[in-house]
Amino acid sequence: MKTMMLFLGALGGSEVLLIFFAILLLFGGRKIPELMRGIGKGIREFNAAKSTIETELKEGIRDAENKAQQTPTSTIEGPRP
């Protein structure tokens, strides 16, 4: 993430304009909205999957903590004479 920020910070206005122009030439004006919709859908699906995994992990941790609290602790007895 930090590397990406450094890369984006190094780009000036003319470089961004050149990249945008190259994308416009490659995909055309009609394909760009479709491309952006696809990227947005992919990001939404990724975020939904991420939140599902986070929820499942939190539930698993909560269940493990509850089981640990519910199990009676055995007392350790000393050696019998």
Estimated share of beta-strand residues: under 5%
What is the typical, i.e. mean, pLDDT?
82
Pattern of helices and strands: HH
- The unreliable regions are none
Count of DSSP strands? 0
Percent of residues in helices comes to over 70%
List the total number of helices: 2
User: Which structural class do the helices and strands define?
Assistant: mainly alpha
**In one word, what is the shape?**
elongated
Rg to the nearest angstrom?
Answer: 27 Å
Q: Gap between N and C termini, in Å? A: 65 Å
Major beta sheet, specifics? Answer: none
Secondary structure layout plus pairing:
Elements: H1 2-10, H2 13-70
Structure summary:
83% of the residues lie in helices and 0% in strands. The protein has 81 residues and is an all-alpha fold.
Structure characterization notes:
This protein has about 80 residues and is mainly α. About 85% of the residues lie in helices and about 0% in strands. The protein has helices spanning about 1-10, 15-70. The longest helix is centred in the middle third of the chain and has 58 residues, at about 15-70. The chain is elongated and about 90 Å long. The termini are far apart. About 0% of the residues are buried. The mean pLDDT is about 80.
Main features:
2 helices, mainly alpha, 81 residues, 0% strand, single chain
